[in-house]
């Protein structure tokens, strides 16, 4: 009788341990580790969202790693990362590769409107730039425009807007958006091309110092000037407005999809707004009393 009782206890113990192991392996959005790949141009907003998520879910640990947009997409396809921040419109071939390799439907989770901006030193006499200047300058041997990298999100986006491949454009490079800002005064005849989120935080001390070094050129379209302010981004009037979105290869509701959901809800969208970008899912409502 005693032996049977001991055997029953052992079986119960094994069952409890087995169930515990299964629970530990079950998907969870509120605990675990996650690495997010993002281009340097939108690193700031990605880090802010990651910090917000970790505050709400203390058992999560999120690391944000900067990687050029194209390389981040490839890592996602090859299962080297679970989530990447993107801005460019994927080609039909890229969407097909995503759906075949990841085995998920292509459903970009849009969360913010950002912009590619054209900057000159603060003391420059230049006050605006036309679309024709941009088109012609990107074909000129003068290499008038300075980008932050050869396969950066900023270059990809400008190339798409001009209906060109990056390899067909002519440009200069200073690695890193912050370096473009800090070194631009050495090249008074050049124009820097960076992402707005590089220094869009309104009350951030570092962002303020960087903004003081340069001025943003409005885009002249048929005599009308468009700037990357909240109205220009919200209404997509600024010609180089771009929408940031998340892609994941996670098929269940684990930490990557939990983070995406958080970023697209009111809390996440408030963080996007504090970053100086336009929230994609929540717009400010104005009521006029008469």
Automatic annotation (TrEMBL):
InterPro entries: PBP_domain, Phosphate_ABC_transporter
UniProt KW Cell membrane keyword: no
Positions of the PBP domain: 32-263
Pfam family name, one: PBP_like_2
Superkingdom field: Bacteria
UniProt keyword annotations, A-Z: Signal
Name of protein: Substrate-binding domain-containing protein
Species of provenance: Chryseobacterium gilvum
């Amino acid at each position: 009788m005693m032996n049977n009782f001991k055997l029953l206890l052992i079986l119960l113990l094994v069952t409890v341990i087995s169930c515990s192991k299964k629970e530990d392996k079950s998907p969870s959005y509120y605990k675990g580790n996650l690495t997010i790949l993002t281009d340097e141009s939108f690193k700031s907003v990605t880090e802010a969202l990651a910090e917000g998520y970790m505050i709400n879910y203390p058992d999560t640990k999120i690391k944000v790693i900067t990687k050029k947009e194209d390389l981040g997409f490839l890592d996602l396809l090859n299962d080297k990362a679970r989530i990447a921040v993107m801005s460019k419109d994927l080609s039909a071939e890229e969407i097909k590769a995503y759906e075949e390799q990841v085995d998920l439907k292509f459903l970009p989770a849009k969360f913010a409107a950002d912009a590619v901006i054209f900057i000159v030193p603060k003391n420059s006499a230049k006050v605006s730039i036309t679309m024709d200047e941009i088109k012609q300058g990107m074909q000129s041997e003068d290499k008038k425009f300075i980008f932050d990298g050869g396969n950066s999100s900023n270059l990809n986006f400008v190339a798409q807007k001009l209906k060109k491949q990056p390899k067909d454009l002519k440009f200069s490079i200073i690695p890193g958006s912050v370096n473009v800002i800090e070194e631009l005064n050495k090249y008074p005849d050049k124009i820097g091309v960076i992402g707005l989120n590089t220094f869009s935080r309104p009350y951030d001390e570092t962002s303020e110092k960087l903004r003081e070094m340069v001025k943003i050129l409005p885009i002249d379209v048929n005599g009308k000037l468009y700037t990357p302010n909240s109205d220009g981004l919200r209404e997509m009037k600024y010609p180089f407005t771009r929408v940031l979105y998340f892609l994941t290869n996670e098929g269940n509701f684990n930490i990557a999809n939990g983070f995406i959901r958080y970023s697209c809800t009111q809390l996440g969208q408030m963080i996007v707004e504090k970053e100086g970008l336009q929230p994609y899912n929540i717009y400010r409502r104005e009521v006029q009393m008469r």
